[in-house]
Design goal:
Three copies of one chain form a homotrimer. By secondary structure, chain A is an alpha+beta fold. The first copy, chain A, has a single domain, classed as YjbQ-like (Jelly Rolls, Sandwich). Helices cover about 25% and strands about 35% of the residues of chain A. Chain A is elongated. Chain A starts with a strand and ends with a strand. The model of chain A has no long low-confidence stretch (mean pLDDT about 100). Chains in contact: A-B, A-C, B-C.
Chain lengths: ~140, ~140, ~140
């Protein structure tokens, strides 16, 4: 069994952002040399998500509006009594999810026609990481 | 390490549907010959989910009503300006999730007493796929 | 390839509870002898979650209030017509998720600075299980 580990680093200019990281994950799979296996891609921070959906600008705005309506930045959160201001981001991240697990088949991400991997940032403007871990043969 | 791949195809008669696919996944695990490992089951389309919960008709209606209230089909979505009419389905799918990962122990799905695998369709009436990928020994 | 399986049992005193199980999962990884691989941690019951987020008491209250507002215990659920009273718990669990998959690197959970594993109970006061399944080398 082979294993491979890589970190992807991001620093978004806005508090919330949605970045397509598919090609970076595909490159990590290529570096791993694994042709049959699984790749785990997860946010290493707890106010960000990794999720799979469509790369369509209207949809990214729909998600952003939905999340802000569901857990508004300026609502009252007990978490913010600690001095933080990101209580909303912890809730938004739970909706979009922490991680995805993707099949690797014949050396590639085994994807349907529209699947793309996104890094969802809900408390950005600082350096944060995504972990890519590959196992297989 | 062994690996195995199978696609399950669905075409629901209704726009939204909830199909119990547990026996099909169990059959794929049997075909794989893997007795200890993991199986990934994921929607290959971005307006559908694979999730694990109870096979109880009332609950399926509860989920459906909850999801339709959360993201109504007839609300306004920027995604629908592209000519699509499934903005709601992309949001419903995020709530229910894209994938499940299940342990395989002694050749079987390692499940608690009520765990069942469902395909959640939010934009059906066309052929769509689920990927089953098994790795292990 | 090595594999390892362990069950963690819980019986919470309250209907809803959020328990940090990170050290128990770390101990299971140690017992497995796996130094490079993946660990799956999932609720074996369908009214509970395993999720990763911050161990901060205010945040746990934020989650609890958010979930109770989203799917109130005393609302009307078709599922409860079966004699159950936990329709709300099935919806809360879908929001928080069933499972997490965590990379194992050099024998440890490969975590960012604040990641902690939680068991989220939404229908407690009875014995329920979490499955820890490790695969790797």
């Amino acid at each position: 069994m082979k294993s491979y580990r890589e970190e992807l680093w991001f620093e978004t200019k806005t508090r919330r952002a949605y970045l397509n990281i598919t090609s970076q994950v595909e490159a990590a799979v290529r570096s791993s040399g694994v042709t049959e296996g699984l790749v785990l891609v997860n946010a290493m921070h707890i106010t960000a998500s990794v999720y799979i959906n469509d790369h369509e600008p209207g949809l990214l705005k729909d998600y952003d509006e939905f999340l802000e309506k569901m857990a508004p930045q300026n609502a009252t959160y007990r978490h913010n009594e600690t001095g933080e201001d990101n209580g909303d981001a912890h809730i938004k991240r739970q909706f979009m999810g922490r991680e995805v697990v993707i099949a690797i088949t014949k050396g590639h991400l085994d994807f349907g026609p529209w699947e793309q991997i996104f890094y969802g940032e809900f408390d950005g403007r600082r350096r944060k990481r995504v972990l890519v871990k590959v196992i297989g043969e």
